[in-house]
Each structure stands twice: as structure tokens, then as C-alpha cells.
Prior knowledge:
Number of strands: 15
Helix content: 25-40%
Shape: elongated
Structural class: alpha+beta
Order of helices and strands: HHHHHHHEEEEEEEEHEEEEEEEHHHHH
Number of helices: 13
Distance between the termini: 35 Å
Amino acid sequence: xxxxxxxxxxxxxxxxxxxxxxxxxxxxxxxxxxxxxxxxxxxxxxxxxxxxxxxxxxxxxxxxxxxxxxxxxxxxxxxxxxxxxxxxxxxxxxxxxxxxxxxxxxxxxxxxxxxxxxxxxxxxxxxxxxxxxxxxxxxxxxxxxxxxxxxxxxxxxxxxxxxxxxxxxxxxxxxxxxxxxxxxxxxxxxxxxxxxxxxxxxxxxxxxxxxxxxxxxxxxxxxxxxxxxxxxxxxxxxxxxxxxxxxxxxxxxxxxxxxxxxxxxxxxxxxxxxxxxxxxxxxxxxxxxxxxxxxxxxxxxxxxxxxxxxxxxxxxxxxxxxxxxxxxxxxxxxxxxxxxxxxxxxxxxxxxxxxxxxxxxxxxxxxxxxxxxxxxxxxxxxxxxxxxxxxxxxxxxxxxxxxxxxxxxxxxxxxxxxxxxxxxxxxxxxxxxxxxxxxxxxxxxxxxxxxx
Length: 452
């Protein structure tokens, strides 16, 4: 039940329609897909207030969703172009480059690293034998070659593989006739160990990357806005399906939308098509701040107060404006000790005004266990919620609170004054002057005489 319906005043419902701008419109939206909302007919007029009356919501069909900056999978939808010396920059950090590339290219580099080294040293072994004229004395029993049983490039390649991996089949071996052969054998042995360590490190680093850990973390399909403890709040849900927990998990949220500076400049991104100005959203999980302990799905809350960038946005503004809410979850994997980051985003079509999430945790007495039903993870239920902005709602509360302090106060007598005040507050040019237009010390005679 919202704050207004809990005032236990019979006349509040009549005043409500007068005070809240846009409350006479209707808006049908549920936890189903936004496309379903377009098909539903709009009632010509709202029902009359009465017992159990659920205040109608604002009709506003979201515009077609723009491409996300962060996809639901967490991938960043950005492409980098015209980077100066791009190849050189990537080669300077070759280890990270090899870890980041796709598996097929990683395995190709892994195989080429060995084959090229085998071929390179096979060529050196063939040149040593050729310069020592071993190929001219293949059948001479009195001739001592640099490498025994090497009579062609093929046998030189086989000897290169045996030397680098210390296979040692027993037929081919170096002799003391050529000192350069002994030096090359030592260098190839060291080179082979280095290549093995480097390639094994790349494969291990790629296998142990925590990038896939985010696949077992769940973000709710929709974000919801409704009352919590008498304040409008933006809420979304996070869950972890693994039994191994995340250590030190922290959640943060960022609002990306267009911002016009005092100089009138519009900050845009990517060929001046979409805005990118970032505003931090203060989020909390229960009373533990931005820390999240994901034993069960947790609801993360952003209180829409005067510090929030959503403070002046009504239900209609939330579906009409262009913005994107990025959600980041960072922590350490308990089983590997690796840090990771999971991401998702919410567009205007993903924000449900006047909804809250269903309960997913229940207790089974038969087994004595707490059970999490993930089929309800994305489900929301519709609740009574005002459709004005948080600023206008606070102004409404202030008006009612100040007028109710008068002993001669009547909601009917003060409705016109409060209604005119909040109708003025819907105009952006008067929004900042609202406190000046309505003094804090409202006397009883002023509350009874709207023209005073």
C-alpha cells in the first residue's frame, strides 16, 4: 500500500486526482514484453475513485529501443576505428593479445610456434651438415659427420623434433666433430623449453579466465519502480545459481543519457548519434550498502531522492526519454581467487513503473531447506504507485503536511491551492521556484483561502 492510501482520510482520493499531474491518464504495462502492451486497448476514461480503487497509470508507449551500449550478455557494443599504430600496440603486449584472441587463433599460434621452431632449426642442421660436406660422404665409413643418420632435409627435420623435445630414438645424435653443432643443440633445447612454458602459460591463462563466471550470474529481465518505505525506488534483482559463492561482491549502477552543459553544448558519442554522459546511481542492498552477499537472489535498490538523476522524471518521462542504465557486479571467485566483472543494462522499455518483484525464496518443511524458485526471478506484480516524479510527490507530501497542521484545515478547502501548486510544478520553468512560490509557514487563513 502506498503512502497516500495509508493516510486514512476519506477525502484523499478526491484530492489525489487533483494533485498528481497525469493521474487522469491510463497506462497498462506488466511484466510481459513491451510489445504486448502496444496491443492492449486504452480505456477511454479511468474508473471513478472508490473503495479499493487502484490509481490508473500513465499511457505511454516506449519508442523503439536503440542499440544497447552493453548487451544483456555483458559484452560491450562498441567498435574501435582508426587507432594509430594499432598492430604495434597489440604486439607490444603480446601475452594479453594471445589470451584475448579466440580459441581457434590461439590454437593456431600454439601449433605454429612449434612447427616454425622445428623447421627453423631443421634448416640450421641441414646447413651445418651441408657445409661440413656430410652429404658427399654418406657411404664413407671413415667419415665422421656432424650429426649421425642425417642425409636429407627430412632427416634433419626429424632430428630437430627429437632434439627440441628430448625424444631420443637412438639412431641420430651429434658428434664431437663440429663445435657449432653442439652450440645449436644447446640453443634449441633452451628454445624448446621457453616455447613450451610460454604456450602452456597462455593456454592456462585462457582456461582460467573468469569471463564465463558471469554466465551463472543472473540479472532480472526488467527493473521496477515502486514505493519502498514511503520513497520511490528503482529496483533490480541479482542472483547466483552456483553453490560456490562470490567473495566481496559489490554492485554499482550508472545512468547514461544526454546532458546539456551550461554553455549549451550537447555531449554525444559515436558520430553524434547517441548520448553518453554518465551519472552515478547510488545503490544499496538492504542495509549493507553496495555489498551483495548472493546466498539468495537479492534486490538492489536505488532511492530516487534529490541526489538522484531520476528525481525529476515521471512515469511518462521514464518511457519517453532516451537513456541506458548500466549495472556492474564485481567480486572474487571463491574457487579460483580470480576477480571478475559481470554487466548488463536496462533501456526505457525495460523499466516497469508501478511494479515490484515477486518473492522467490520459500521454506519446505518436508526437507527443512530453503528453496529458491528461479522461475519467478523475473516476475513482477503491479502495485499502487504515483505516476508523478519523486520531486512532485515530495511537494505533494509537503503541501498535505503543512495544510494538515492547521486546526481549521479541510482537504476539500485546500485541494485547489495544492492542485494549482502542483500543476505549476509540472512546468519546467517553474520547477526550481516551487519553494519560493509556496512559503513554508502556511497560516490557517491562507489554507482556507486559496487566493491569499
